[in-house]
Design a protein that fits this description.
The protein is an alpha/beta fold. It has helices spanning 46-56, 73-76, 79-86, 97-102, 109-113, 177-180, 186-199, 215-231, 233-252, 257-266, 268-278, 283-296; strands at residues 11-14, 23-26, 35-38, 63-67, 90-92, 124-125, 131-134, 137-143, 152-156, 161-165, 203-206, 254-256, 300-303, 306-309. It is 40% helix and 19% strand. The chain binds zinc ion (ZN).
Length: 312
């Protein structure tokens, strides 16, 4: 595997896995200014995130503020623990600000996806079109709907660094969640890829995976993937259902087959995805197919009555 490219001295990337998003520290001009932390990982990794952070902060440096690119559980699950530890404010994109303030399960994704997130209090909004100043750098805030309608990405023009969240990975992008409830978002994904291309980033720090510099190849493969999903939205829906199942298994690690099937059957986003795209197959049979396909592809491992996640 290639070594990831070096990041500018004012940025530290804590590369995580799939259950927790990457955490990115934007250091100030001096340690006493404090660092800005972009995204905080998943709830059940919060102790590990706190330990990684305290290692990555420079002497005399603290976290002065948390910002979230979007409010999926793998990006903001450490918000509460980190804001309590460092007594720092949390800035979030404006679209779900009031839903987070009310902790409205009918709007937020946690209940629907069967994922956990500790309640936290946001202090301010990251408004697209504005900038976030840190040290001598101005990070532009851009709206990046598609994967999530309210997501933002952050771009620093002097070093050409883009924090792309789940809008662009080295290979692809995150699940296009609105499409699972029947809200068209493929065109928004494309428009966000156009915005990224227009920024001409020299380095992309994605929400998952290592930073990368070959942005043109990443954009080409994202556009190709998008065109495939536009032609076959049911493939996108099935991939999304598989990704949500693997996420659950990464959290659970091991489960009886019966418990996993029960989880699949009571998780609202899976029921609605089945109904919208696969309703001609009985629900229970569809959940069985989903698990079988994950076992077949090697993502999950089955032993008589239990299922576990393959090391990845
Ligand atoms: Zn996400």
């Amino acid at each position: 595997m290639n070594q990831p490219p070096p990041t500018p001295a004012h940025i530290t990337v804590l590369e995580r896995g799939w259950l927790s998003s990457n955490n990115i520290l934007l250091h100030g001009a001096t340690p006493s200014e404090g660092a800005v932390l972009v995204d905080t990982g998943y709830f059940c990794h919060r102790e590990q995130t706190l330990a990684l952070l305290s290692n990555a902060l420079r002497p005399q440096e603290t976290v002065r503020c948390i910002v979230n690119t979007h409010l999926h559980s793998d990006h903001c699950g450490g918000n509460r623990a980190i804001s309590e530890r460092y007594q720092c404010p949390i800035l979030i994109p404006p679209g779900e600000f009031s839903a987070i303030e009310r902790w409205d399960d009918s709007v937020l994704s946690y209940h629907a996806t069967g994922q956990q997130c500790e309640r936290f209090n946001p202090s301010g909004k990251l408004m697209p079109g504005q900038t976030l100043k840190q040290g001598r750098f101005e990070w532009q805030i851009h709206a990046a709907p598609g994967h999530d309608p309210h997501s933002v990405i952050l771009f620093e023009p002097e070093s050409g660094t883009l924090i792309s969240a789940d809008a662009l990975w080295e290979r692809g992008f995150g699940i296009i969640f609105p499409e699972l409830d029947g809200t068209h978002a493929f065109l928004e994904v494309e428009a966000t890829l156009d915005i990224i291309e227009g920024l001409r980033p020299k380095l992309v720090i994605p929400g998952h995976g290592a930073p990368f510099q070959d942005v043109q190849t990443a954009l080409l493969s994202a556009r190709e993937r998008l065109r495939y999903f536009q032609r076959k939205p049911e493939r996108h829906a099935f991939n999304a259902a598989k990704a949500l199942t693997v996420f659950h298994m990464l959290e659970t690690q091991k489960s009886s087959t019966e418990d996993l099937l029960a989880w699949l059957q009571r998780t609202p986003i899976l029921a609605s995805t089945w109904q919208r795209f696969f309703g001609t197959t009985p629900f229970v049979e569809w959940t069985l197919q989903l698990v079988q396909e994950l076992v077949h592809s090697g993502a999950l491992q089955q032993e008589s009555t239990s299922i576990s996640v393959r090391g990845r």
